[in-house]
Amino acid sequence: xxxxxxxxPSAESKPLPDPSTTTTTREEQQQPLQQQQSPQRxxxxxxxAALKTSRRLASEQLRQAERAERVYRxxxxxxxxxxxxxxxxxxxxxxxxHLALGARLLFxxxxxxxxxxxxxxxxxxxxxxxxKRRKVIEMKRRLEEKLAASxxxxxDADGDGADGGEGGSGxxxxxxxxxxxxxxxxxxxxx
Length: 191
Description:
This protein is mostly helical. The protein has helices at about 25-35, 45-150, 170-190.
């Protein structure tokens, strides 16, 4: 089937308006704007809106509380840090003073160290002489006990064995007294 071409518009029929060239009245233009400006009531009651509002308020309060907490924590820790800094400065100042004093005293110790060594060696010498003196006195006491036990009598103070004693033992005792006793007596007199 062949299509018939459109018929030319007649005067009796109205042609359709061209949308690009259509003009509207002012009332027609304002009507859609009024519908867009007036908010539509939500489908539910005001519960959803109230929940959203309370959530927003709670979120804002939470942000403010977190901010206040951060400020408080920063203020407290800054105060503690300042106190620690002041205390550390005073301790370091004292440490510097003590280090300087310690260095001066150490220099004095090093400077006078030979005298300390001499004093210690002198103390060692005195202790050694005292020990030798005691040893000599102990040896002399033992020798006198042996002489008294073997000779039966008491000898001279010099220990020369002139009291007679027993034959040959007097000479042996005299030799012991001469070898050790007289030296010990000399040492005793020197000390």
